[in-house]
Design goal:
Blueprint (H helix, E strand, L loop, with lengths): L14 E5 L4 H12 L3 E6 L2 H13 L4 E5 L5 H13 L6 E4 L14 H28 L4 E6 L11 H21 L4 E8 L12 H9 L9 H12 L10 E4 L3 H4 L9
Parallel strand pairs: 1-2, 1-4, 2-3, 4-5, 5-6, 6-7
Helix pairs in contact: 1-7, 3-4, 4-5
Bound molecules: (2E)-Hexenoyl-CoA and NADPH dihydro-nicotinamide-adenine-dinucleotide phosphate.
NADPH dihydro-nicotinamide-adenine-dinucleotide phosphate binds next to helix 1 and helix 4.
Pathway: Lipid metabolism
Function: Participates in chain elongation of fatty acids. Catalyzes the reduction of trans-2-enoyl-CoAs of varying chain lengths from 6:1 to 16:1, having maximum activity with 10:1 CoA. Has no 2,4-dienoyl-CoA reductase activity.
Pfam family, one: adh_short_C2
């Protein structure tokens, strides 16, 4: 685990909402914000996994809450923010981390498969951003949004749906940064390459190892490294940064040779 550069209690008094916060990168983000004094609110679909995550965080002395919702469902997203109001847990920071896709050649992606991935990664992120910004506007309270995308500078062969959806999020990030600056919101993104989480079991291991070996920094990222980048973008140190997508990819964007993604 990388050494934390942040001062203790940096996010004391702040509430941080993390989609997909019960596993992998989202859980690492929740852990770091919690260790830095924030109250953390986790959302995802799997209630049991959320409960396990909040249990672990609570044992570490972190104030943690969980709400099971599907971010693809507009009604569930609206209901979440109403519930957060009712529970006095209005977020200061939103981390749109929930997402994913399946690896398949473009010609094997059905219209419904394409739609499912766009619904999750682009529309789901959009719905969460909108509900968060309306909440901030009502309360005349600024805030931070950080969107987790994928390294995509040279396209993402084997994941055309995710490539399209995440490119949408990158431009949404820039556009919302303009439109919502007057609301006191900054909107940024982090684009990880390959991060060591259980979710990688969905991909071909030999291919992943070959992809990593070809990087200028030939290793996977750790989830905690993504969490530190997110914490920086949500911190006062980044108050003049908006609309950027930070590549956290071991230099993948320099190679011009895009990793191939395949199912196991
Ligand atoms: C490598 C490093 C980079 C990235 C790493 C990470 O992101 S790690 C993080 C990774 N974490 C995650 O990825 C977690 C989140 N990911 C997910 O939940 C799913 O990937 C999801 C977004 C598709 C779920 O959507 P959903 O519940 O709505 O799914 P559904 O079952 O209802 O199917 C909808 C349509 O998709 C079709 N289809 C599905 N699978 C395949 C396939 N393998 N092949 C072809 N097609 C497939 C399915 O047939 C159907 O189309 P049809 O038959 O009706 O025409
Ligand atoms: N690991 C990697 O190499 C990389 C990952 N990423 C991205 O980082 C993010 C986290 O990935 P990682 O931690 O590895 O994988 P996970 O599969 O553990 O994370 C995905 C999270 O999103 C949640 N989620 C999925 N669908 C929905 C939905 N419809 N509504 C609400 N929550 C949902 C899942 O919970 P649940 O199933 O309970 O809903 C899960 O907690 C993803 O967006 C991923 O694409 C980006 C680059 C590389």
């Amino acid at each position: 685990m990388p050494t934390s550069i942040f001062r203790p209690q940096l996010f004391s008094g702040r509430t941080v909402l993390i989609s997909g916060g019960g596993s992998g990168i989202g859980f690492a983000i929740a852990s770091l914000f919690g260790e830095l004094g924030a109250r953390v609110v986790l959302t995802a679909r799997n209630r049991a996994r959320l409960d396990q995550a909040t249990g672990t965080l609570t044992e570490r002395g972190i104030e943690a809450f969980a709400y099971d919702i599907n971010i693809r469902n507009e009604g569930e997203v609206e209901a979440l923010f109403e519930q957060l109001d009712a529970d006095a847990l209005q977020p200061d920071v939103l981390i749109n981390n929930a997402g994913g896709q399946f690896a398949a050649p473009a010609l094997d992606i059905s219209p419904n498969g394409f739609r499912a991935v766009v619904d999750l990664n682009l529309t789901g992120t959009w719905l969460m951003c909108g509900a968060f910004a309306r909440s901030a506007q009502r309360r005349e309270h600024g805030g931070r949004i950080v969107n987790i995308v994928l390294a995509l500078d040279s396209g993402i062969p084997g994941m055309a749906h995710a490539a399209a959806a995440r490119a949408g999020v990158v431009n949404l990030t820039k556009t919302l940064a303009w439109e919502w600056a007057p609301l006191g919101l900054t909107v940024n993104a982090v684009a990880p390459g390959i991060v060591r989480t259980d979710a990688l079991s969905q991909y071909d291991d030999a291919q992943l190892r070959a992809d990593v070996a070809a990087l200028p920094l030939p290793r996977m990222a750790e989830p905690e490294e993504v969490a530190q980048a997110v914490a920086y973008l949500a911190s006062p140190a980044a108050s003049y940064i908006t609309g950027v997508t930070l590549a956290l990819d071991g230099g993948e964007h320099l190679t011009g040779a895009t990793p191939q993604h395949a199912a196991p």
